[in-house]
Design a protein that fits this description.
The chain is mostly helical. The protein has six helices and no strands. The longest helix is centred in the middle third of the chain and has 62 residues.
Length: 202
């Protein structure tokens, strides 16, 4: 009695009592059920099942009476087919549930990727808009061409004006030379040119 009181401690959780079911790997069982469901969903399974049932019928109908293990009405065959159906349905449902879980995970991953791609696309769109705004303030090739053409026209006009001025100066110089042919020498104070101009009568 004292031993039992010593083992029951209040600071420790109580061990569960009752029937303990055997533990199994759910992932391995799920893969096994998927393999069975995949095999039962093929044409080979239908053909093999049809051949087995035909042999069963033929043997239990045409074989001698002492060798027939399931005579008409084929009660054992009915039991086997019922057991197969009762196990096949849950296995197929388990495989479908696992496939639905995989589809859900794939859908969530696709949604996550679509969200990331949308965010990347919006970021790139904002960057392109910013580049367009920045490029709007930069001189383009057409703008530079128009400015260079305008400068070339202004330089041509300035050159033409300079040529006209040079022609006028040359014409004025030629007129002065014809008006005063003896004045090839420059006018200065030493020769008394300015004094002669002041008193022309002398």
């Amino acid at each position: 009695m004292a031993e039992q009181r010593r083992t029951e401690r209040l600071d420790q959780p109580r061990e569960p009592r009752g029937i303990t079911l055997p533990r199994f790997d759910a992932e391995a069982f799920g893969r096994w059920s998927e393999g069975i469901a995949r095999g039962m969903g093929t044409a080979n399974f239908i053909v093999v099942m049809t051949v087995v049932i035909a042999i069963w019928f033929g043997w239990n109908t045409l074989a001698p009476a002492e060798l027939r293990f399931d005579p008409y009405t084929f009660t054992f065959l009915t039991l086997v087919l019922s057991l197969q159906a009762s196990y096949a349905a849950p296995l197929i449902l388990l495989a479908q549930n696992r496939q639905a879980d995989r589809d859900r995970l794939a859908l969530e991953e696709d949604r996550r990727r679509a969200t990331a791609q949308k965010a990347d696309t919006e970021y790139l769109a904002r960057e392109i808009a910013a580049l367009r705004i920045a490029l709007g303030e930069v001189a383009t090739r057409d703008f530079l061409r128009s400015e260079l053409a305008r400068l070339a026209e202004e330089l041509d006009e300035a050159g033409q004006r300079r040529q006209r001025l040079e022609r006028r100066q040359q014409e004025k110089g030629s007129q002065r030379s014809t008006d005063a042919p003896g004045l090839d020498e420059p006018r200065d104070e030493l020769d008394g040119d300015y004094a002669r101009d002041a008193h022309p009568e002398r």
